[in-house]
User: Fold these one by one.
Assistant:
Number 1:
Amino acid sequence: MQTLSVSEVNAQIKGLLEATFIQVRVSGEVSNFTHHSSGHLYFTLKDKESTLKCVMFRGNAIKLKFQIQEGMELTLEGAISVYVPRGEYQLNCAKAYPNGIGELTLAYEQLKESYAAKGYFANKKPLPKFPKKIALLTSSTGAVLHDMLRVAQKRWNLVEFVVLNTLVQGEGATESIARNIAVADTLGFDCIVLARGGGSLEDLWAFNEPLVIEAIFNAETPIVSAIGHEPDVVLSDFVADLRAPTPSAAMEQLLPDQNEWLMLLDSTQERLSKLLNGILQSKAMQIRNFKKSLDENSFFKKLSLLNAECQSQRVFLEQKIEHILALNAIKLQTPNAQIHLKMEQTLAKFRTKLESLKMQLEVKNPNNYQRAGYVCVLSGGKKIKKLSEVPLGTLLELQDKSAVVRTEVKEVRKC
C-alpha cells in the first residue's frame, strides 16, 4: 500500500468532493455570522444534529438583495470546496434565499428589474399642491382609513375624500386594486391614494402583481403608494408618483399643514403691512418735500415777481420817454441857423427843378403847337404819330384852336 502525505490525502479528498458536489442546495439556520472587511461572508449553517461551514465571497455577496443575519433560516446554493492547508471542507455559496419566501423574493427582484428596464419607475407626475378631491383605495372597514382621515382633518380640512372599497389582501385583491385604479382615474380626482396596513411579503404581494403595476403606470391621475409600514417596500412604491412610508404619512406628505399656512399668512400680512407703511411714509415725505418746494417756487409768487418787474420796467420806460421828449422839446424851441440854412437850400433846389419841369411841360403843350399854326391829327380819338403809316380810306380829324376838320385819306406820299 502506498503511503501518502497529509497534503496528498487532502488534495485527493478535495478532488473527490469538488467533483462530486458540484452543485448543492442545502437549508439550515445561520450561526457565527461574520461580515469580513474584505466583503466576504463567513458563517455556519446548522440544524439540530450537524453543522456546515459556509463562505460567500464578495463577488456573490454584493448580489444579495437582503442582509444575512444571525439566526436566519436560509436555503443556500453552491459547491463543496476543500481548504487543503487545514483539511477543512466548506460550502462555497453562490446564492442565498430566506426560507419560506425565497420564491416570492426572487419573483419580486425579477419583476423589479424588468419594470425598471422598461422605464416604469421614471417620469413621475407632479402632485397637486392644494388637492381638493382625493380618492382613497383601501378597505372601508380597516383602521388604516380612520387613521388617514384623522390626520387629514388635523392637517387640511378643505379636501373631499371619496373611499373606493378595495380588497387589499388575498384572492381577488389584485383585480380589485387594478379595477378601482382604472375607475378612479376617470372620475376627475386630483390624486389617488393606495393604502393598507403592514404585513408579510405574502400579505402585500398584490401590490407587486403586474396587473396592478400596469394600472398604476397607465393612470393619468397622480398616485400615492402608502403600503405597509416604513420597512415594507412593494413594486407599487416604485412605479407610483410618490411613495409614503405609511398611510398616515401619505396624508402628511400629500396635504399642506393648515397651521403652517396660517402662520405664513400672518407673517405675510405683517410683512405687507410694514412694506405698505414704509411706502406710505416715503410718499408722505415726498409730498411734504414737493409742497415745500412749491411754496418756495410758487407760480403765483413768480407771477407776482414778474408783475412787479413789469411795473418797474414800465415806470422806467415812461421816465425814459418823458426825458427824451423833454430833450427834443428843448431842441425844437431853440432856433438852429444851420437847420434853417439847409432847409432853404433844399427848397431852392426843388424850386429850380420845378421851374425846369414847368418849362418842359410848356414846350410839350399842344395848345402852344396850335397857336404856332400846327394842327393835331386824330384817328378814332387817338393822335397819329406818323402819317406814312395811315392806311388809305382812314377817316382823320384835323384839329387846331379854331376848328375841327374831318377828312378821308385818298393818297399817301412819303417824304
Number 2:
Amino acid sequence: MTERHPPRVVPLVDQRSSSLTTPAAAFSPETRLAANGLITDKRQRALRDLRISVTDRCNFRCNYCMPKEIFDKDYAYLPHSALLSFEEITRMARVFVAHGVQKIRLTGGEPLLRKNIEALIEQLSALRTLDGQPLDLTLTTNGSLLARKARALKAAGLQRVTVSLDGLDDAVFRSMNDVDFPVSDVLAGIEAAREAGLGPIKINMVVKRGTNEHEILPMARRFKDTGIVLRFIEYMDVGATNGWRMNEVMPSAEVVQLIHAELPLVQLDPSSPGETAERWGYANAAGQHDKTAGEVGVISSVTQAFCGDCNRARLSTEGKLFLCLFASQGYDLRALVRNNPSDVDLTSAVAHIWQGRTDSYSELRSAMAPDTGLGQRRVEMSYIGG
C-alpha cells in the first residue's frame, strides 16, 4: 500500500527580510574587544571557519535549494549595489582571520557566476593566519562553469574545490538540477579541476529518499581509487522553500551500511576539530584503511547533531552575518562597514556577536518529533550557502 502524505506546501518568503536582521552596531557596546584569536561563544566554541556567499544567483534549480516555484523568471535578485564589494569582503575576512579563522569557503548561489571572482580570490589568498600560514581557501560549486574557469581559479590562489553532484545517471541529474544540465559537463569540470591542481577535490551528494538513493553505490564505485573524497549529505530542513519532510531523509547510517556491504569500510578519525563529516576509509583485505583507495564521508545534518563543536560563521552576499546554517537571526555587517568604522570598532563588533552565540538548532530539533520545526522562520541555504 502506498503511503500517503499531505500536500506539500511551499511558503513564499523573502529570506532577505529585515525581520531576520539585527543591526551589527547594536553589538558594539562601549567595551572594546581586541582580536587575539581566542574568542569563544557561550558554549566555548572557537571561531575557525568563515563561509562567504558571493552571489544569490544560481543557474541550477535544485528542488532542495532553489526550487522553480520560488526562484522563477520573476524572482527579484539582489541589485549589484546591495552586494558586498570585493574590497568589503576582504576587509571583513581580515577581521575574522584576526579572530582565529583559518579556513574561508566561497559559496553562493553559484559563486562562479560572480563576475571577476578571480580578483576576490587573489585578494583573499594574500591573507595569512595568526601563525603566518596561508588560509585554507576553497570554493563550493555546482561544476557547470568549472571546466572553463579551473586554471584561472588556481592561478588566482584558490587551493581546492568542492563540487555538488547528486548522481551519475544523466536523467536523474537533469531532473534534480531542473534545468536539463548534463552530468557529463560537471564531470568534465571535475577533471579540469584535477588537472589544474585544485585538490584534494571533494564531491557532495545530497541524498533524498525516493529520488536518488539508487545513485549511492554508482557514485562510490566511480570515485573510489581516484583521490576524490565523496561525501553523502542528509537532505536538510534548511529554510522554508524546499518543502522538507523527514520521510525523505535517508540516514547516514543506512548509506554507510549500503556501501559497506559491497565496498568494505573502516571508520577514520576526524580530520580537524569541528569537522562535520564522519570519515570512512575503504578497507583492504586485512580490514585496514587502504589509503590508495581513498575514503568517503557522511554528513548527518538531520540524524546526528554536531552543534557541540561547530566553529563556523556565514556571511551572506549582502553582508549579513549568520551564526548557524539554520539561523533565524542575522547581523547586518554591511551597514556597519559602509558607515566607515575603524578597524578597532569592526573587530570589536564581530567579537561581541560571536561571544553572544548560543546556536544549537540541530540539537534542539533532534529532541522533537519528526516533521516538526522549532516554529522559527529560518534563512534559506541558497542565500548563505551550505
Number 3:
Amino acid sequence: MGSGKAIIFSAPSGSGKTTIVRHLLEHFPNLGFSISASTRDRRGRTEEHGKDYYFLTPEEFKQKIDEDAFIEWEEVYEGNFYGTLKEEIQRLWDSGQHVIFDVDVKGGLNLKKYFGEQALAIFVKVPSLEILEERLKDRGTESEESLSRRLFKAKFETSFENKFDVIIVNDNKEQSFLEAEKLVGDFLKN
C-alpha cells in the first residue's frame, strides 16, 4: 500500500465521534474519510452507498474476506459485519489525502495495530453512561432492546480506552472540536 497518515476515532455508539470527525473534515482539506463496508441496512433514506458506507450483502462481504480485501473486519452485532477495505485507503492516499476513520472500538484497535506509527488513535467518551443513554434515546433510532445492547457494549468498550493514544471526554462539543483540531493538526505536522 502507498503511504499517508491515519487518524482513528473510536468510541461507543452515541459518544459523538461522528460529529467530531465531520467537523475535522470541514477544517482539514487534506483529510479523506474512510468509508467502511457494512452488511447492515441503511438508516432512513439519507444514507448512500459509496458515501456513508459500502453496503454489501453478507455474501459479498464474505467473498471480500476470502479475497483478503479488508485491513480489518468484524461482526459488530449479530449478522451485521463492518470492515475497512484496503482499496479504500489506497484510493485516499493516491489522492494525496491522509485518512480519517470513524470506527467502533475493536476496529479502532485493529487499525492502530495495522498502521503503527502512521496512526493517531483517539478514543471519544462521554462523562457517564447515563449521559450516553440520554444521547442514544434522543436519537430516536433505538428500540429498548437495541438501547440495552448498545449500553452493555459501551461499558465493555470503555474498558479499552487506555489502549488508545489519546482520550477526549466529549462533555462540551465546542471544546471537543478544539481539542481534536489541535491533536490532528499537531499529528499531521510531524
